[in-house]
Design brief:
314 residues, alpha/beta, 5-stranded mixed β-sheet
Length: 314
């Protein structure tokens, strides 16, 4: 859902491994992805499509009778479909959902999949879709890359079981993921309560940054941007205090403004890393072989570290 640079990388890795995917993105192509890094939609193709759309719009002004047909643009999901199929022609073509609004897609749609992967969606959508997916036995991932950082939330359901790899051709007895916390509960844990032996003075900075981005969207119904950087600074400072941290936990005003600027900016290397990690995680889930990442995955491109961080209630 919402095809981004990160989710494109995940799709690529899974399709090459033989996993059939469904694409859900009804946004107009190429407008919605002009600045999105993608393995499937090269910039040259998107620029040409954008220019073609502009020319069509000019023609529409001259011919009202044909405007109804020409006004409907191709969706992002439809544009990606042939490229995905080309990667692995042995698979059937991707199922498409070209609905413009996630809110209008019923829970039943998500409950039919083994794994649902979302990207760059708001907090309320995360909670609803995660619950709809896991309540029917599915597994849910949501990923958001911003600048040199990326965060992924994972909900495998309370009853997910797996076998650890103990060496070549050896597997452990069946285990369950512990501790388990649903995403619905995970995102409600205050930042001041998120600590471990390596983060005694507060939560990991990547997680705190992501929570402030989600908080802004939840408050303003839009993602942070350079134009609204000062509003983001004010909201974030208040949010950090409400969460039990100092208002400068994520840095000074200039650093918060920078975070607002990159909140929706994806960098290809970051997308490649987090997409590769999550693609591998999904393969583990589908096979039941290997201990899966639990709860959250945090990637810091400044030091190259990708860590599984577990959030618990205290």
């Amino acid at each position: 859902m919402t095809i981004t640079g990160s989710s494109s990388e995940i799709v690529k890795n899974l399709v090459l491994a033989g996993v059939r995917c469904a694409l859900c993105d009804g946004r107009p192509y190429p407008d919605a992805v002009l600045n999105t890094p993608s393995s499937f939609l090269p910039p040259s193709e998107r620029i040409h499509a954008s220019n073609d759309a502009s020319r069509i719009q000019v023609d529409e002004n001259k011919s009202e009778q044909k405007s109804a047909k020409r006004q409907r643009k191709m969706t992002v999901a439809k544009a990606m479909q042939p490229h995905v199929h080309e990667l692995n022609p042995l698979l059937e073509e991707c199922e498409l959902n070209e609905n413009m609004s996630l809110q209008s897609i019923p829970d039943e749609y998500f409950s039919k999949f083994d794994v649902v992967i979302a990207s760059q969606i708001g907090l309320e959508d995360i909670k609803r879709i995660s619950k709809a997916t896991t309540s029917s036995g599915g597994k849910f991932y949501v990923v958001h890359a911003f600048g040199w950082y990326a965060c992924a939330l994972i909900d495998l359901g309370a009853d997910y079981s797996f076998r650890k790899e103990l060496g070549k051709d050896k597997l452990s007895d069946v285990c369950k993921v512990k501790p388990y916390m649903s995403i619905e509960n995970l995102v409600c844990v205050k930042l001041q309560d998120i600590k471990d032996r390596w983060h005694k003075d507060g939560p990991p900075l990547v997680w705190a940054r992501y929570k402030t981005i989600l908080n802004y969207y939840n408050s303003e119904n839009e993602w942070p941007s350079e134009e609204d950087a000062m509003k983001f600074v004010d909201l974030t400072k208040r949010f950090l205090i409400e969460e039990g941290l100092k208002d400068d936990y994520l840095g000074n005003d200039a650093e918060l403004k920078h975070l607002a600027t990159v909140a929706m900016a994806e960098i290809s290397p970051v997308c490649a890393v987090i997409g590769g990690v999550l693609g591998n995680e999904v393969i583990k889930i589908l096979s039941g072989k290997g201990e899966p990442a639990n709860n959250t995955l945090l990637f810091d491109g400044m030091d190259g570290a990708c860590q599984n961080f577990t959030i618990n209630k205290r």
